Amino acid sequence: MNAFSYVRPTSEAEALRALAEPGAVALAGGTTLVDLMRLDVMRPARVVDLGGLPLDRIDAKTGGISIGALASNTAVADHPEIRARFPVLAEAIDAGASGQIRNMASVGGNLLQRTRCSYFRDLASPCNKRSPGAGCAAFDGYTRMHAVVGGSQNCIAVNPSDMCVALLALDAVVRIKSATGERAIPMSELHVTPDDRPNIETTLKPGELITAVELRDAPFAKRSRYVKVRDRASFAFALASAAVALDIEGTAIKAARVALGGVATKPWREQRVEQALVGKRPTQQTFDAAAKLALADAAPRPDNAFKVALARRVIARALALAGGVS
Amino acid sequence: MQDAPGPCRVVAFVRGWSPDRAGVLELERVRAHLRGLSAELVFESEHGTWLLRPDDEPHPIERLGRTRFRVDDEEDAVFVIEASGAVRFAHCQRTPIAGTLAPALQRATDVMLAQAPLHFTRRAWLTTCVVSGFALVVLSACKQKPSREEPEPAVRAPEAGEVDIVLDVNGQKHPLRIEPRVSLLDALRERLLLTGTKKGCDMGQCGACTVHVAGKRVLSCLTLAVAVQGKPITTIEGVAKMGELHPLQRAFCEHDGMQCGFCTPGQIMSGIAILDEKRATDDDAIREQMSGNICRCGAYPNILAAIKAARGGAS
Amino acid sequence: MKPAIGAPIDRVDAQRKVTGTATYAADTPVTRVAHAVIVTSAIGKGSLRALDIDAARRAPGVLAVLAHGNAPRVKADRTSGGPNERVLQLLQDDWIHYADQPIAVVVADTLERAQGAASLIVPRYETAAVVASLEQSLPTAFEPKAMVHGAPDSSRGSFDIGLAAAKHVVDATYETPNENHNPMEPHATIAVWTGSDRLTLYDATQGIFGVRQRIAEVFGIPKEQVRVIDQFVGGGFGCKGTPWSHVALCAMAAKVVNRPVKLAVTRQQMFSLVGHRPHTSQHIQLGADPEGKLTAIRHAVISETSSFDEFVEPSAMQTRMLYACPNVITTQRLVRVDAPTPTFQRAPGESSGTFAIESAMDELAYKVGIDPIELRLRNYAERDEQENKPFSSKSLRECYQQAAAKFGWNRRTPKPRSMRDGHELVGYGMATATYPANQWPAGARATYRPADGTYLVQAGTQDLGTGTYTIMTQIAADALGVPIERVRFELGDTAFPEAPVSGGSTTASTVGPAVKDACTMLRAKLAALTPADRAVGQAVVAEAKSEVSPERKKFATHAFGADFVEVRIDEDLGMIRVARVVAAFAAGKILNPKTANNQFVGGIVWGIGMALEEDTVRDRRTGRVVTRDLADYHVPVHADVPAIDVIQVDEVDTVVNSLGTKGIGEIGITGITAAIANAVFHATGTRVRALPITLDKIA
């Protein structure tokens, strides 16, 4: 790990000023940053510890819940209102990492969680994400864990977050502050695919700070589930996961949300599947048929081709659970 | 490769000392310093004279005699003497040294590592003695006695980037001067010598470094020490109260919830947290909640049994 | 007094382990110890063209940077060529044999500064093409020079005639991947020189005397001047069985900076610096008559070794004696790849070998159309047909019977995919477990201390978590005729009588008899003391060296067991979980049923990892390990491990050694991988012949 200077601001304004300095990065739970710094993948000149900021509140109001960016993953997953009103979020968080990491990891940090691509984490391998233009060791390498969609020859690194998949399915809104103002964007606009700039992972601008995530109550939110498939029963990243939410009125699906994790370079929304569900009866047949439309644009590598079919089956299972079809 | 000097010897005259009287902790600290000095210790009191090598039991040897070292009966003294006979460090004081032998040695270590001029009396003095076959010949002559001043505590000047922090560990406040890049794990292990917390991966993937910060289980390897100033930290060393094992520690013993024991402190810190937080609701919940603590020996079924037993005992 | 041996007493070191006061090598307090870190090569083969260490050397706190060019010359980085030793890489030349080979060592006053400075080193390489996998070098397979046990090849009868006579034939190739031990304690060494020629090493090792010998050779000093101490080993499983490069590099660094140095191997470096279980490809042919009686067996093993050293994964060994069959051929061959040298990993040979042979037996059971237990009973070996010796004891029938009954094997419907529960396919599988019972000479010392009436018993052995402290205390207490509270057993110090490496399930059988002998001698000495002697109050010491009885050579000595497994597989999602395991082991005298159960269970947990999860993947272009940490290299977590029911089958063996023990550390991981694979076949109808069985292989 490189030497760095450390500051611990006690106000948002102070934090924003500190973050505006060149080479500054924000430290929240540390589960991504400290890990990558120890690997020398990240070598910030300045670490801005956000731990002194009062940004960990979870406010449950009528119409929605606002989650402070520094709320721990555990606090979010344990929150009774979140469990009742947005179950998929609690399930997704509980399916990720370990108890210790969930205690440390913040919501804001999890939104910016970086890929687990082994080549990205190994300085001896070329990586466009680490050093643009260096090349991608993964593309022709060992790709079992890599993305089957949203990638290119420049980068096929998977976004590893479980939480983000749920937030995407829930149409969450991300609140962002900077020294010059404040903005809010939908989850779907936070992450970007690597294209020819794999080092750019989000639409966050330098010096900006995520302050909160907002969930709005929606008819589908309560009927939402997360299913994750991995190589061991716990404490493993997803081979494929699905966050789904269904609004069922009478015998028909009125609205649906479907998002995938573990298969794409960013949390991946499957609108084709959603559209295919609308108006249909919530049966296993409906779910299976709709799930088959997922990942139509998949471009898997030899080692991860299995993920395409797997992800479709994961969607079908999650829909069956959400739809109450056993 | 430069030739290391021969074995170093520390000679201590300490009134009231004997191996049985020294506390276990004191002896451990003395051993640590002897390793640091690559030295062995000869100590003498009215109870006898012993040779202590860092990894052996104290061994009685022939009397040295204080006079040869010009230490009088109302004094305690510590000398660090190289094989060549050169005295690298000498310290003498009227107040009894017994309780502070370890700190005195610590200072000796600091002085020797500082590559500073030899730290002893203003001028060298002459003494000759034979310590169980070890010839000590200091050639330069001097009538003066060793310094009576306290050796200055070797305060390292703060170096670029270092910060002063206070860690609150197991109810004790520890001031530290460290770089911000020091993890809580390395601060505990390498600075505070609280080595019960283990480094299994140093990247948040095994749970061996689990401690409690502000009552929550966290991974000390991914925590910067500087970021947890002022927060109460509990490590495995702080779990037993007044020598009484925590019920989960007892259960681990009874149910053999370990093999090699390396993951055990982390397992117990995690286990205590899930019991306190009432997450250990059933077998599958315990397995899931404990999955961040890898036990490569595979003692999982016994760990499960221990947590259930402690839960039963607690409720 | 009730004997201590056989009683399920609590681990005597448990209290130290649960309070964090057990001192592992890196925990040894050394005031202001300097820290060393190893810098490793990025490339998998080639040479160092240049190594810029200036920036690192100038970094704050740095005491030294060692590299090819400035590192002290050592006396011996090569071995005598024995199969128990590995060639070391000690910065003596610029050649790179494998990815992540040591190319420099940075020493600084703090760990952070050493690590920080290490990242400033800039190597330039001359890269050569890498041979990364077994498949690439198959045509160059060769016969190994030596094996730890036995010869590379075996043959009895005529395989060809046996196979020609067979009604049923299984002909299949099974593969096991590269695997890494990954004990929770990464290797670590603290080196303290006193003078220029006396060295104390606090080293994480399974064999303190092996380290002493090797390091003395490397530095050209008498072994008596090297002392190795390791009171607690945080797991070993084989990788700590031989000294590796980092131990010598740490001692070298300490000598250069003239102060004590600590060097801890990082978790990522655990994948390259300390050995691994090599990839095997095992071709098995079984021939059987219409009733399933074996007429021919061929087990041809090819395993990987490095380009510069030989290690054989002896996967064919058990096949030589496991079943009655007149015509058996086994062969062991090696192929060279550009990788580090492999080494012993828990049940080297038998773990990978039983996967192959016991999978093949399951395939044969389906071909013959009989129950897999029945097939094994029809081919039950009453004697070791290869060695032509009787077994000293063998209770495998009892293992099959007791485990099958407890498991409820009779509920199994043989047809694949015939058992299910909701979304889940249910599969039952079984296999035979086996591991040889060996014994080596060892020493022990017992001292009576009249001051407090206690007995101090010492041997230069190790406790890897296997319970050595506990069982030796029990053995000593019984031999002395005193309660265990009056006995203290010490180990892990070359100042004690010499004992061999703790490996191959031999510690109880090797050190146990020595402890027993020393204590028996001491007891006799004490009985012979006159009242006058007693009045003097001097300590009384007895030292013993146990030998292997010649009687043993007349017998084949093996432990046996049977594993029964239920797997459940989500039919849609493919996730495989082991739902329960019942296993029975007959391994001679069990000294402590509590710690023994833990050992057996631990072996089975390893089997779950080996069967379903573990895979050290190397990039085929560079030879670098891709799965280089515990997030990418999966070992079982709590949630992977179900209830495991182990039956300890009573067995009396008067041949193996004076305690009747056969060793229990490895047998748990044998057979179990095949039992799981067989259960997966039963559940799904898919026969997976290459471990690990991940969900994509049964989709």
Strand content of chain A: 15-25%
Specify the biggest β-sheet of chain A: 5 strands, antiparallel
Please give the alpha-carbon distance between the first and last residues of chain B: 63 Å
Radius of gyration of chain B: 24 Å
Given helix and strand content, the structural type of chain A is alpha+beta
Describe the biggest sheet of chain B? 6 strands, mixed
Explain the overall architecture:
The complex is a heterotrimer of chains A (326), B (315) and C (699). Chain A has 326 residues and is of the alpha+beta class. Chain A contains 11 helices and 12 strands. In chain A, the strands form 3 sheets. Chain A has a 5-stranded antiparallel sheet, with no helix packed on it. In chain A, strands 9-10-11-12 form a 4-stranded antiparallel sheet, with helices on both faces. Chain A starts with a strand and ends with a helix. The mean pLDDT of chain A is 97. The longest helix of chain B is centred in the last third of the chain and has 15 residues, at 300-314. In chain B, helix 1 packs parallel to helix 2 (101-113). Mean pLDDT of chain B is 83; it is low at 1-5 and 116-155. The radius of gyration of chain B is 24 Å and the shape is elongated. Chain C has 15 helices and 26 strands. A 7-stranded mixed sheet of chain C has the order 3-5-1-12-9-10-11. Chain C has a 5-stranded mixed sheet with strand order 7-15-14-13-8. In chain C, strand 16 and strand 17 (389-390) form a beta hairpin. In chain C, helix 8 packs across helix 9, helix 8 (350-368) packs parallel to helix 15 (672-684) and helix 14 crosses helix 15 (672-684). The longest helix of chain C is centred in the C-terminal third of the chain and has 21 residues, at 507-527. In chain C, 65% of the residues are buried. The mean pLDDT of chain C is 97. Chains in contact: A-B, A-C, B-C. At the B-C interface, helix 1, helix 2, helix 3, helix 4 and helix 5 of B face helix 1, helix 3, strand 9 and helix 14 of C.
